[in-house]
């Protein structure tokens, strides 16, 4: 690998003059913003990002073996979005965002395969950047300026409420429904959008004890055309009933819907006979042009929730055929072709200690359960509230995961059992420990990867171990720091292994009132990149976007981005 030291130094200096920035999650529009007129139902503002992103290769991309540090790319990323949030009279509400500009401009791009001539030279990068200022609004756009990133529009009458949505909506996005199964699953980005019609507030209540709701929606998100609908009722604060119907087609012609379609219907009911007990049942059936009506296209689940004194337990039993699909939901909650028994329970010992156990028993291949893979997942959990001992905000949580499989080995009548450690973690949380520690979170996780079960050894042979570390430190309300690290080991020699990864960052909300007090941030990564969705905070595996069912403290992407290193810095204005 070749490297010329003057290139990264020169480019960092040039791009640094422009300041920097990396893609961040969108902030919820504040209750009051700089663009909101006194007494107005509207709020509006600007979200501006500016990032200098500079990447180096630390491994040869062809073989992954040769080690080095070769400057690869320097780029300026910037975008600006103008958002509107408000109400037009009593009937109309709007949630919109217009992209004013967005561009990712390379100042330098090496030839990744070792040629002496870069794909983008420094001269070409500077020339392209200078040319933008001849027409900045057009030049700073990778597509036409003034496009809508998102648009949400609501027409609300006392009897009906209609919602139109497109893009990454902050609020009032598409509806969802989860009983025991997730059958209508919302997306963060609603893509090609939706139209929803639901009951208005005047029709939702029948007396004091009955509340009803109904929803019918059309969308082009999941397929070429789709429908999701929901009717639900709450009776006397003890009974809940819901019916859903969802459907999609991949036919490009709407009036050929009958030639290709997938459909699912579900019925959910829950009853609370006592304060400490609630029970529920959920049935799901699939049908369509490619799904024959049969037991294999159905699923059913029971759930009991018990909360008595210091004990809280949730017992769930699901049985799903191999051909069942939710169509608009999350099929991981259904687990087609399997019987799943789950028991999630907590016992509060006292105000200092809670003990939990999260257990799943899965029979895969229920059509022939005897010869299928059986899995028992056990996750003990313990939470300690140390604040009760030392009069400080301090908590510690630990967990571990052990999997036990009964192997589906057709040539082994004994059907052997094999146990394997999957993951363990510890999290320490503290607040107001010191004037320089407003909040501190430290997390460590150990996770293991295995090869396929081995007939020779009669076990799962270990492939790799990952030690994951994370620190989020809010020094003050304005200043915060992050540190992430991963240590990787392999059971066998591997010349492509990069054993150590590191990520460090800092973020500061400035008081630079002359330039509207931006947030300034910087981070450095080496052989890992846990800053996936946000510029100045770490992204952990149990981030809400992952909708993780079980506890996990490991950083995201332990084995990805191992061949690159990055230095990024930037500013964000939320005006």
List the helices and strands and how they pair.
Layout: H1 6-18, E1 43-59, E2 67-88, E3 92-109, H2 122-132, H3 136-139, E4 147-156, E5 160-166, E6 177-178, E7 182-184, E8 194-199, E9 205-206, E10 210-219, E11 225-235, E12 239-249, E13 262-274, E14 277-288, E15 298-308, E16 311-320, E17 338-348, E18 353-364, E19 374-385, H4 387-390, E20 393-406, E21 417-434, E22 437-454, E23 459-474, E24 479-490, E25 500-509, E26 519-526, E27 564-574
Antiparallel strand pairs: 1-2, 1-27, 2-3, 3-4, 4-5, 5-8, 6-7, 8-10, 9-10, 10-11, 11-12, 12-13, 13-14, 14-15, 15-16, 16-17, 17-18, 18-19, 19-20, 20-21, 21-22, 22-23, 23-24, 24-25, 25-26, 26-27
**Helix proportion range:** under 10%
Could you say which structural class the secondary elements and strand pairing correspond to? mainly beta
User: What Rg is obtained from the alpha carbons, in whole angstroms?
Assistant: 27 Å
Basic shape: globular
**How many angstroms separate the termini?**
44 Å
List the total number of helices.
Answer: 4
Mean pLDDT: 85
The count of β-strands is 27
The residue ranges in which pLDDT falls below 50 over 5 or more consecutive positions are 1-39
Largest sheet: 24 strands, antiparallel, barrel
Task: Bin the strand percentage.
Answer: over 45%
Give a structural overview.
With 575 residues, the chain is mostly beta strands. It is built from 4 helices and 27 strands. The strands form 2 sheets. It has a 24-stranded antiparallel β-barrel. The chain has a two-stranded antiparallel sheet with strand order 6-7.
